Amino acid sequence: MLVIGLILSIFGIGLFCWLIFTLAVYALPFFVGLTAGMAAFHSGAGVIGALLVGIVVGALTLGVGQVAFALVKPIPLRAAIAAAFAIPAAIAGYHAVLGLSQIGVPSLLWREVFAWIGAIMIGCTAWARMTILAEPLPLRPGGATTDAPQPVLTAATHEG
Predict the structure, then answer these.
(1) For residue range 58-104, what is the model confidence (pLDDT) as tens digits?
(2) Of 137, 131, 125, nearest to 66 (Cα)?
(3) Torsion angle, CA of 68/73/75/81, rounded to 10 degrees?
(4) What is the pTM of this model?
(5) Which of 81, 70, 59 is nearest to 132 (CA)?
(6) In angstroms, rounded to a whole number, what is the distance separating the alpha carbons of residues 31 and 62?
(7) How many domains does the chain have?
(8) In 85-109, which positions are buried (b, 16+ CB within 10 angstroms) versus exposed (e)?
(9) pLDDT tens-digit profile of 10-51?
(10) Does residue 1 lie within any of the structural domains?
(11) Residue 68: which domain range?
(12) Does the residue 148 lie in any domain?
């Protein structure tokens, strides 16, 4: 019975870590949606109205961020948009890893070290996912991309 508990604990922690890395890019939209939903609830919208406002605002935040990242050409502005998504993910990652490390690490110093390493890794993952989710689409006026693959020549022809 003890072995089953240990195996399930390892799988549970692994699943939780996978979820943290997968959902890291959604930290900013979640925080914005939660704040909007709480503001709507406190203004008298009710539970269902606050839930709807939070979901809509969170989805708009993610959509606007991805569209802005895809359409903006200057690298510093793209980096600022990616950082706006990566910094809240790093903060959430810090607290998640700190909470997980309290399970098995007795030393406060090592808990902090693990939490900072986790924050950096999760922030970098959110940065990478933001760049992957919103690829820039350079288009020609005709609608064809400039990065279109060239046809492969199968045999060289020589006229003469």
Answers:
(1) 999 988 988 888 888 888 888 898 899 899 999 999 998 898 888 88
(2) 131
(3) 0
(4) 0.69
(5) 70
(6) 11
(7) 1
(8) bbbbbbebbbebbbebbeeebeeee
(9) 888 888 888 888 888 888 899 999 999 999 999 998 999 999
(10) no
(11) 19-133
(12) no
